[in-house]
Amino acid sequence: MNGAVVNGAVPRRTRVVIVDDHAVVRRGIRAYLEVLDDMEVAEEAANGQEALARLEWMAVNQCMPDVVLMDLLMPKMDGATTIGAIKKRYPEVQIVVLTSFGEMERVHAALAQGAAGYLLKDAEPGEVVSAIRAAARDEVFLDPAVARGLTQEIVSPPTGLAALTGRERDVLVLVAEGWTNQQIADELVISERTARTHVSNVLRKLRMTSRTQAALFAVQQGLVPRQRP
Q1: Which terminus has fewer CB within 10 Å in the chain: N or C?
Q2: 74 and 119 fall within a common domain
Q3: SS3 for 158?
């Protein structure tokens, strides 16, 4: 039973930070969590940058949260980038995604950055609480639809273009147009190392060994026009 007293001691509440750019969403989640005797909403933030500022203040004051409940699509700093920044600075803080978007590309990005849970916003309030509690126990909690998608990828992994993320498709087009890794990096505003990683991922997923093969594939798929002789 939540909040049960064991041997005279009251269990410590799970401290939660809510990050969402919609105030009404934050207020709704806070109202629900605060009626639970094992939850405490420590802070709120409207975007990733604000979340990092709040966490920095909390670290200085030694009142860090256990779990950050976070949307993905936010202004100033998107959720996936924010997750990576939080896990790099505060690895002990667990993060649960609560978003409207269930595309596998977004799921992979969030989990790769260190998210401990992924829920869609049509989830029941009880599922949100279960995800927060699971994260606080260092466990992973996935929305059933997301879990099915990941399972399907394992059973029947996508091939060809379907295997590539949107960013990887962009990289494939640029490779086909003869761009170097540095030019790709400049165009996509990423580091040269990240561009090189994207190119390697494209080749691996397409089961190819050279940029020339990838370029021919892009032409065959109609991603870039054929060069006139």
Answers
A1: C
A2: yes
A3: coil
